[in-house]
Amino acid sequence: MKNTKIYYLLFCFVVSLSSCEEFVSVEVPGSQLSGEIVFEDYKTAEAVLLNVYTKMNNNVMVCGDGNGISVLLGNYTDELKCYGLNIPELMFYQNELATINPTIQSLWRNTYNLIYSLNTVIEGVENSVSLKQHDRDRLLGEALFVRAYLHFYLNELFGEIPYVTSTDYRINTSIGKQTNEALFSLLEDDLLRSESLLTDNYTGIHRVRPNKSTVLALQARLYLYHEKWELAKQKASMVINNSVLYSLVMDINAVFLRNSPGTIWQLMSAPEGKNTLDAKSFIFKTVPPPSRALQEGLVNKFEINDLRGINWVKSVSNSSRTFYHAFKYKLNNDTSTSMEYSIQFRLEEMYLIRAEANAELNLLDLSAADLNSIRNKAGLANTTALTKDELLTAILKERQLEFFTELGHRFFDLKRRGGLDSVLSGVKPGWNTSDVLFPLPENELLLNPNLLPQNDGH
Amino acid sequence: MQNYSLNKKLGALWHLILIGIILSSTPALAKKRLRPQLSERQQNQISGIITDGRTPLPGVTIAIKNRINYAVLSDFDGKYSLIAKANDTLVVSYIGYKTAIIPINYRKNIHIQLQEDITSLQEVRINAGYYSVKEKERTGSIARITAKDIEKQPVTNVLAAMQGRMAGVNITQTSGVPGSGFEIQIRGRNSLRTDGNSPLYIVDGMPLGTESLGNSSFLSGSILPGAGVNTLSSLNPADIESIEVLKDADATAIYGSRGANGVVLITTKKAKGGKTTFTTNTFSGVGQIARRLKLLNTEQYLNMRRQAFKNDGVTTYPANVHDINGNWDQNRYTDWQKELIGNTSRHRQIDVGLQGGSESTKLLLKMTNYNEISVFHGDFEYKKTAFQFSGNHRSENQKFQLDLSMQYVLDQNDLPGSDLTLDAINLAPNAPALYDNGGNLNWENSTFVNPIQKIKEEYLAKTDFLNAGGSFAYRFFPSLEFKTMAGFTDSRLLETKIAPSTMYNPALGLDNSSFSFLLQNKGYQQSWSLEPQLHWNKAFVNSTLNVLVGATFQERTFGTQALRAFGFANNRLIYNMAAANTITIFNNDNSVYRYNAVFGRVNYTYRNKYIINLTGRRDGSSRFGPGKQFANFGAVGMAWLFGKETLVEQLLPSLSFGKLRSSYGSTGSDQIGDYQFLDTFSSTGLPYQGIIGLQPTRLFNPNFSWERNTKFEAALELGFFNDRVMLTTAYFKNKSDNQLVGIPLPGTTGFASIQSNFPAEVENKGIELEWHSKIIAKTNFSWNTSFNLTFPKNKLVSFPDLAGSTYANQYVVGEPLSIRMVYHYTGMNTQTGLYEFEDYNKDGLIRSAEDRKMLINTTPEFFGGLQNSFTYKNWQFDFLLQFVKQIAPNFNNFKSMPGLSVNQSVDVLNESQPFSAGFNSQASNAYSFYRNSDAAFGDASFVRLKNIALTYTLPTLSGWDCKLYLQGQNILTFTKYKGLDPENYSGVRIPPLRVLTLGTQLTF
């Protein structure tokens, strides 16, 4: 009897010893989703894409704070003067970018991190069996566009860069750089594909998702930068002619409001009530400025009755000195409903792109007409420029005054027009010709020697 | 009690049973009749007091020879009484003392003085996890400290108590902030991953999850180093009975995939039974930063700055250089080290305990309360309250046994948001006052970033830790026992960090409570484990056989949730989330880990001289992808007690003990976090168009498996002069391959790293020496020393295609993992005034990959400790010297270029390239190379008087035992190190504190 009990217990024990594979297989935790299922459902697939927009608005490349090019390139050129004590930003202002500058490193890494997300969307959506066709087109079109948009800036800032189109880390670990020509055609291809997939309908309100016109706007900019005047003109016209959606905002103080009809694409601030990081970055109330202020050289360029100089620049002074800050985005606090979103493309740029392209094509009247649309809106008389060169100079100045502290327009304009050295060496003692390109982050070169050589001068 | 030895021919097993039987019969059964006269046949009452010559010994077992079911214990005053015949013989035994055989010889009062048994060290049973072995019979390598060592040290973390006391175990304190972490390496670094080298911690049989519940990136990172709140700091050192560190394959293979980096077994105090006693232990003390840097004073600093501008050719000081352009007082001087981190910390502890019980049931309850005020500017307090319960029960027939133990620890750590050490070093000596006349933060008209800002950002961590475990055993036959160990741990963390609007410069326009925010992180970790086991022991004529088989089922769930509450109606409501304008959850994570294994041990001892020990484990872990979950591990250990061979006994009479042992086997490591094989997406908590975003968490990679570690050890243990001198020499050689590595990836992959197995091989070998001696052992005076010394060697043996891998610039085959590749500093060019470096590839340029070819090895060359213990009458004095020989990054490695607006060590006045204020890019570049050159590394060897303890035991009052003690930690450090502290050599963290404590212990 006693032995039976013992044998029974021993039997139980032996059974308990046998390890079972099921015990050590665990479900994916409730807080995460596996890659396979994310792209079988529109909501989750879209959430991956939306996270990219959130990141772009909050802290990557095109964001409005010190991680974004509005602030960084403003400091780097003749727009902003850095008063803060943030060393990496100060180094932008002094044009002393070290290869280990942490902001350079994060610009690179965070942007490619978003490109990875976009590639998961592109691959996931392409392989998905259950997504509907129009959902698939929309997600794919947006992802392709944003992938091009981010690569476009990387290319402009760092020169030759890898164009990443895969999620396979084995490929991306040792990926090499593309030449500028190859990059141009890759950008062109992605944008053409995107253009064919998207429609002019915005998803949701407030134009916070790119549509077909947004693709056209980037195409116009891309062709302008690559001096394909005819194409630039054509794409810009397609946006301008879409008067159902877009019109120039005549009230100078309404240009940056979130319901502005001049906006082609903007990034949403969430939750409701938040406004832009740009406003937080540029606006200050005391002197000396705690972080950064407009350079006086820029402020002095506005004609006396330029509405932009009056409304988009604000002065702050104490008894002895006056400082100026950008006042395009006016709300650096939360409001009950959000009033301003960070604008990526607006109609004014299309006018000035077309003006420049027409000037280059020697269609001077057409050029002057577009330029005057912008000038008149700012309360200025028609341009006095007559020749092609005069017009181009006037357009460049107009771009400076129209787009100051917006996404590095000034830097890119000077760069493509070859004006960096002549303009900046006067105002920026640290300026060197080789500063035309940022250095590649040192850590990246160590991890992937295929990115060598380093950009000249760094 | 287990090493009570009556009959050496019987195995340990029979001892146990015999003792059990003896203990089970209570004295109450004896007849208590008094007899007027003693006669041989009559039972008489015998009584007396048992002492060690100085103080009474409670709990001594007094038995009568040849009477097997009768024994009594001495009470707290050492008194005993029993009934015996006048011609009986008493057998008096007590752990740590020689057993006395005393014929009664017609006496009625017999006072007994026991002699300390200096060979007893060999008889101590060492906990090896699933089983225990006698020190002399162990085949594996196990280091140990006990409560006796721990209670001499005023420390709050158990790892601190182990520092310098164990060969092969290298422990460094990473910060002097209360509650912060320690790094431990047992026999070197096995994994290429820097975070894959921590050992397995087992508390009373329950594995302790050491992953931090904290959110270091947003909350704790700037104040607590590493991953944040450390689970080990939840343990109360005062509750710990012993800590065993398992080092070699023989000891660790039974832990399989978790044993690669060694195992730390922590055993808490258990009820001992006997008379009900009450103990209180109270101490209080002070602490201070042990070392400070000599920095420039205002005059020297301003001269440096002016010279720097002059050197750069800048004549008008820019508007933002407030320290010299006139905005700041040019005569002001503040010693910022004193001001910001120079406070005296105060601590106190109260510890009360009650224990007692009968032979069959014993109980212990203990409570500890500790608090400590930090050295930071402002009032920050660390509090710890611990409860400890232990109970056990044995049935009368000794067949059934139940043990329970439980610890509950409440830990509350209030700290500034950031460690101010770097501010204390960097701030210009003429920087403005911290507060204005009104007591508000001074911003000196927006020219000053007030470091008190970081103090206003208060960090608070509250941890509740519960560890409850028990075992249930039933002995079917004397030789067969079934045992189940079960345990549960629950650890909860609530940490908060506030950013009240008052921390901002009002000029930023943020001085309104609608800009205040609160970050909160909640984490929990719960685990249970169940380990059924069968123990079978069999004694044969010349040999014994022990067999153990068991299984493990373990599950751990883990979760964290972090949120940010922004905008409050009033700063006083900042901890009230209901008062926040917006609340966003920015992190929410949970995971499940399951672990399943079968394990076994076969131990065979022949003639008490030849021992073979086989251990093994088959493991399964949920951390690996399908098809990769199971693996086998095993080890063989052997020992030869050659000291018992007749020939040796004849030839070397002074050799009292001799053992040769060796082991070989394999273990593994699964320390890679959960779900690493999946490509998952997790919620970001951030909405866009009202939809919460999803972000990719990691890259997909199902093909990784165990990191395998094979260990070999050979050791010689010798005892001389009756074991008064014991010497152990061990050689070990461990190899780790199939390295599980978070391979750093370039940014173009979208991620910083990927987990993957890598066919690289890392070797750790070394020699460990341990020496214990009882130099003097007189009744009134004794002097014991212990010494340990370790020579570790670490080497990357192979790394296929290292040059083409992402580690090309981090490791070199044939060199240790701890090397740093740096520039080689060749001196200053007096013509250009620039530091110069070796141009290895002679291309005329200094570039990172090509010219960082100088190798610096930061593995300690050797380390160890020397402990001395003296007793004279009622006085006891202990001290521990810890020493390390090593090279480490020094001050030059983390300092900014001299001439910039940060303060410098006085050394820059003698040796520096010409100061530059940052306008000379060549100088800046040269200095950045300098910081990454061999000039920024130096001798960080040190000898530290780690611990002193002076104890005075008051002469015994009736029933009272009272001790007074003075203890100190990190008392003196002898070093040539240039920097704050040679132990944590960080430069940005508070170094370990010098602590002095006075206390009393009272037992009655």
From TrEMBL, chain A:
SUPFAM superfamilies for the chain: TPR-like
Residues covered by the SusD-like N-terminal domain: 86-224
Listed GO CC annotations: cell outer membrane
Residues covered by the RagB/SusD domain: 316-418
Compartment(s) where it occurs, according to its Swiss-Prot or TrEMBL record: Cell outer membrane
Xref: InterPro entries: SusD-like_N, SusD_RagB_dom, TPR-like_helical_dom_sf
Keywords noted in UniProt: Cell outer membrane, Membrane, Signal
Pfam family, one: SusD_RagB
Family, as annotated: Belongs to the SusD family.
Protein name (database record): SusD family protein
Native source species: Flavobacterium granuli
TrEMBL record, chain B:
Compartments in which it is found: Cell outer membrane
Record's bilayer topology term: Multi-pass membrane protein
Family (UniProt): Belongs to the TonB-dependent receptor family.
Domain TonB-dependent receptor-like beta-barrel as annotated: residue spans: 459-971
Major subcellular location class: membrane
One cellular component (GO) term of this entry: cell outer membrane
Pfam families with a match to the protein in the record: CarbopepD_reg_2 (PF13715), Plug (PF07715), TonB_dep_Rec_b-barrel (PF00593)
Lineage: Bacteria, Pseudomonadati, Bacteroidota, Flavobacteriia, Flavobacteriales
Signal peptide as annotated in the record: none
Key words of the record: Cell outer membrane, Membrane, TonB box, Transmembrane, Transmembrane beta strand, Transport
Protein name stated in the entry: TonB-linked SusC/RagA family outer membrane protein
Domain annotation TonB-dependent receptor plug: ranges: 136-263
InterPro entries recorded: Beta-barrel_TonB (IPR000531), Beta-barrel_TonB_sf (IPR036942), CarboxyPept-like_regulatory (IPR008969), Plug_dom (IPR012910), Plug_dom_sf (IPR037066), TonB-dep_OMP_SusC/RagA (IPR023996), TonB-dep_OMP_SusC/RagA_CS (IPR023997), TonB-dep_rcpt-like (IPR039426)
NCBIfam families from the UniProt entry: OMP_RagA_SusC, SusC_RagA_signa
